[in-house]
Design brief:
The complex is a heterodimer of chains A (450) and B (537). Chain A is an all-alpha fold. Chain A contains 19 helices and no strands. The N terminus and C terminus of chain A are likely disordered. The chains are: A mainly alpha (450), B alpha/beta (537).
Chain lengths: 450, 537
């Protein structure tokens, strides 16, 4: 950043770069540049920063199972950030996603171990649902309190975090402790309630009930995609009255093919052969959740209500919307997604497939940064979550290969967030003009007055 | 008279807009110079240039014959140019004295040694404020807390603030937009005092009546250009309106006699409390029939806001009954009232009427987004919304780049048109319009007035609440005057006179011989009911 004078020869280049990348990417780039300067200043070694960053990239992408681990780390980020974004868009700052994450994990751990007799097609959805509902209730209560008593959700959800942490500890050490284990943890969940890893899919599909479950999901997805396509003008004209038939038929067909062919196909050839690869089907759920949140918030009447309540609660009341119901709903969706994130960690990631006492995550607070960086856009959240997941995963190899402390990652993330929150700094650095019209506010919630 | 300020050839471009196009403007010493123009005509840009908020692209400014550059508001104040903004720049919890000294704090003698901890010298500032208010006839109490003051008093504080900083030229940006007619008259007296003692005033407005009441010189801007400058003696309302709009404007509404049919809104003994639990709507009864306009006149803050909110379900009813089309709507949710066929143009378009960050497309369906054809099941049909927006933008002449423009980026007049369009585009049985043209320009007012009369002619019952007596008189078929939560009298609009209504608005003529109303909420009295209320329908 040597460009201080107005006669800066780099100015045209910088502003062209700025325009091309857009604000979040610029903020990141700048954060990495400043991070490099800090590494240089602290190590005194010109090569330290390139070595560190190269280590980071290798750790995140190229080392053995590097990419998989980055994805595994980004899955909870996606779900938590989506949850936060629903809150932000509805004018609520659900700072308690970490607590809801724990409650979700606890509920899933409980629901996963109640029996070993259920087939996966029932037990897995049940455990997922339990976690989501647990998180939803944990967040819905502060939402209701806000409307009833005026308690600000930032305070009440933060307090609920501590209740969640201590409650989880109590249940793990006392009520739901696995007495057969030397470590303090809940009993492992039934194999039927485990979230499948990609490597295990061929073997799982050999059970016809599992294949049926997968076929049902695929049938539903196909029908939804065809339904969305059928609303395009050219398809609409072609299909006419046969729209329903086309949707149902394609779904049924996809389901049938999946049921018959998938077990055979995956048995014959499957790209995920590494049994120690932890990449799990929660990835698919995270992507679907992003699409679902986008659809809900942008395309439906409940989403319209939530956004109106978030943007102008007075106008929402004027328009006949029920504010209390919408605030509780927003918190419940937000908490439900956070709970699902915890669920997935228990059912798909933890080695014991249980909830151990030392289940520290820190995912929740990082997710606040991610949803701000992505400006609450679901697809931006997918990208930003991968970035944070990759950095989290790559940091170890970076430290190992260059000696640069892995906490430099936190510094870079904090800087990126700072630049996103204060775009004027970035605009000044890259000689960009302020956008016409009012600056899009960083999508934080309204003040403490409620 | 000497020339105090002269701006020549001022040009200011914004991306895509030529906001000021070689504008010439001359302010003489000791005159009140009214600057008229519709929203977006370039008045504010010109004033912001004079106040140092913008730099002109071309042109020069002469102050007392000296060519000057005004680089910032701070600079403008230093050069003796003060501005009173439409939205006051005051800190509500602080006292008048504290607000006025803010940014120019006086320090008690001897306490300079304390550095940043030096003691504030409130006393001498308060003394100076008293001197100033006495000299110019501004009733301002230095020890009052700003949030307790009426809007009119807050404005006087702003004026004193400018005078305290020794402003010789005062720019007042739409000072009457927030005032009641009485407060406006008080302001004009103050302005006269100020110019009598050598100050010069630029008075931005788009209300024609005020221009004749107060101005020595009138300049009119239109579409970024100076359309002309005349003296009030040579001008007529029609001439000025035409200069502003660029075409002949019909200032009087021609409307036929009302054909009142069945009763649509029936209010009986309604009692409503404000946020501080003072009864501000006290035992009101009224009724509105299909095909007539009932105007509710009154100085603002006499319970009109709460009455409207109670009728539309936004505020709890404490006593009495509201019936809309023989359906009891006293204690129902706003949605049910809206679905009963009630359209509501709210008093505050930013607070209630619009979601400023949403597109026009979405604002047009703010109340109907869940109904067919806008929604199928829980999915919103966006192509239908687009089509709806295009249609309404055209029908209601909303000036906007497109349907996806955010409501917040439109001018006030166009925002109000969006609300009117939305509320009149669904089946209307009862239209409740509260201050429908507040702060709007002549062209928009004319347009909105015609739409309201049109709604009446199509068989809607209309309840019009307005603090603008002109508006009430030109639109209403019957006029009820509201004072301190009561309706003092209901008159036939064809025979009611301005004087008669003005007296009733001040509480004279009913059984309430009280001082003129203060702001809302000061109403703690539960006096005897007015005998005139028995006359209410």
């Amino acid at each position: 950043m040597s460009e201080n004078r107005k006669t800066n020869p780099f100015a045209p280049f910088l502003s062209a770069l700025g325009r091309a990348l857009g604000m979040p990417a610029l903020a990141l780039l700048t954060a990495f540049i400043i991070g490099a300067i800090v590494i240089l200043l602290t190590s005194g070694d010109l090569l330290a920063a390139p070595t560190a960053y190269w280590g980071l990239i290798r750790g995140a992408l190229f080392k053995q199972r590097g990419l998989s681990e980055s994805l595994v780390a980004s899955i909870p980020y996606v779900l938590l950030s989506l949850g936060l974004s629903v809150g932000f868009k509805s004018g609520l700052f659900n700072i308690g996603v970490e607590g809801q994450f724990y409650i979700g994990a606890l509920c899933a751990a409980w629901a996963g171990q109640i029996t070993t007799g259920l087939p996966a097609i029932i037990h897995l959805p049940l455990a997922l649902l339990a976690g989501a509902i647990g998180g939803a209730i944990w967040a819905g209560v502060p939402g209701y309190l806000k409307m009833r008593t005026g308690a600000h959700e930032v305070i009440s959800t933060m307090m609920m975090n501590y209740v969640a942490f201590r409650l989880t500890e109590y249940v793990i050490t006392d009520k739901l402790r696995d007495v057969n284990s030397t470590t303090i943890q809940t009993p492992s969940v039934s194999p039927a309630a485990e979230l499948w890893t990609f490597a295990a899919i061929p073997q799982r599909l050999q059970d016809p009930l599992n294949a049926l479950g997968v076929a049902l999901v695929l049938a539903l997805l196909t029908a939804l995609v065809v339904r969305a396509l059928a609303d395009r003008p050219d398809w609409k004209a072609k299909l006419g009255a046969r729209r329903g038939l086309a949707i149902g038929g394609s779904g049924l067909l996809a389901g049938l093919i999946a049921f018959v062919a998938l077990p055979l196909l995956t048995n014959a050839w499957w790209p995920f052969t590494d049994a120690y690869d932890r990449l799990h089907t929660g990835l698919i759920m995270a992507v679907l959740a992003a699409v679902g949140v986008w659809w809900l918030m942008e395309k439906t009447t409940p989403g319209f209500e939530l956004r109106t309540v978030g943007a102008n609660p007075n106008a929402a009341r004027y328009a006949g919307m029920n504010i209390t119901r919408n605030v509780v709903l927003a918190m419940a969706i937000s908490g439900g997604l956070a709970g699902l994130a915890g669920t997935i960690e228990v059912l798909g990631v933890s080695i014991c497939r249980c909830l151990p006492l030392f289940f520290s995550s820190g995912y929740g607070f990082d997710s606040i940064a991610i949803s701000l960086l992505a400006r609450n856009d679901p697809f931006g959240i997918l990208a930003a979550s991968f970035l944070f997941g990759a950095m989290r995963n790559g940091a170890d190899l970076m430290e190992l290969s260059s000696g640069v402390s892995k906490y430099i990652i936190s510094l870079i993330q904090a800087l990126a967030l700072l630049f996103v929150a204060a775009p004027a700094i970035v605009r000044w650095m890259y000689r960009m003009k302020a956008p016409a019209g009012e600056e899009k506010q960083a999508p934080l919630t309204r003040g403490w007055g409620g | 008279m000497t020339i105090a300020l002269q701006a020549t050839g001022i040009t200011k471009r914004f991306p895509g807009v030529l906001a000021n196009d070689h504008v010439n403007f001359t302010l003489k010493q000791g005159e009140i110079h009214a600057l008229l123009g519709e929203n977006g005509a370039g008045k504010s840009t010109l004033m912001n240039i004079l106040y140092g908020l913008y730099q002109p692209d071309e042109g020069e400014i002469l102050l007392n014959g000296q060519r000057i550059q005004i680089t910032s508001p701070h600079d403008a104040i230093a050069q003796g140019i003060g501005m009173v903004h439409q939205h006051f720049m005051l800190v509500p919890p602080l006292t008048v004295t504290e607000n006025i000294m803010l940014g120019q704090e006086s320090i008690q003698a001897g306490s300079q040694a304390l550095g940043p901890l030096a003691l504030l010298d409130r006393r001498s500032v308060a003394k100076r404020i008293r001197e100033l208010s006495q000299r110019y006839g501004l009733a301002v109490d230095p020890d009052a807390t700003v949030q307790d003051l009426t809007v009119g008093a807050q404005q006087r504080v702003e004026i004193v603030k400018a005078l305290y900083r020794e402003a010789q030229i005062l720019i007042l940006d739409e000072p009457t937009a927030v005032l009641t007619p009485q407060e406006a008259d008080d302001l004009f007296v103050i302005l006269r005092n100020l110019v009598a003692q050598g100050k010069s005033i630029i008075f931005i407005t788009h209300k024609l009546r005020e221009v004749f009441a107060v101005a020595d010189q009138i300049s009119v801007m239109r579409a970024g250009k100076m359309a002309g400058s005349v003296q009030p003696a040579q001008a007529t309302r029609e001439l000025l309106a035409e200069m502003m709009v660029g075409r002949a404007v019909i200032l009087t509404i021609d409307k036929t006699d009302a054909n009142p049919a069945n009763v649509v809104l029936q209010v009986e003994n309604l009692r409503v409390q404000d946020d501080r639990r003072h009864t501000v709507v006290n035992d009101i009864s009224l009724s509105v029939r299909a095909g007539e306009i009932l105007g509710i006149a009154g100085v603002q803050g006499n319970g009109q806001t709460e009455l409207t909110e109670a009728l539309t379900g936004l505020r709890k009813v404490v006593g009495g009954q509201v019936t809309i089309l023989s359906q009891d709507t006293t204690h129902v949710m706003p949605r049910q009232i809206s679905e009963a066929g009630v359209s509501h143009v709210p008093e505050d378009r930013h607070k209630h009427g619009l979601v400023l960050s949403f597109s026009l497309r979405d604002n047009f369906v703010l109340c109907t987004y869940y109904q067919p054809p806008f929604a199928k099941g829980i999915e919103i049909d966006f192509p239908v919304l687009e089509e709806n927006a295009r249609k309404l933008i055209k029908m209601f002449d909303v000036r906007t780049p497109g349907a996806s423009t955010s409501a917040g980026s439109l001018s006030g007049g166009n925002q109000q048109k969006v609300i009117i369009a939305r509320e009149l585009s669904r089946p209307v049985k009862l239209l409740i319009a509260s201050q429908p043209t507040r702060g709007l320009d002549v062209g928009s007012i004319e347009f909105i007035h015609r739409r309201i009369v049109e709604a009446r002619d199509q068989g809607a019952a209309v309840l019009l609440i307005s603090a603008e007596l002109d508006e009430i008189m030109s639109l209403s078929d019957r006029i009820a005057v509201m004072y301190k939560g009561h309706i003092l009298s209901t008159l036939d609009a064809s025979t009611a006179t301005r004087e008669q209504l003005g007296l009733l608005m001040a509480g004279i003529g009913g059984a309430e011989p009280h001082a003129p109303a203060q702001r809302s909420g000061n109403n703690r009295r539960n006096g005897p009911d007015s005998p005139l209320e028995a006359m209410n329908v």
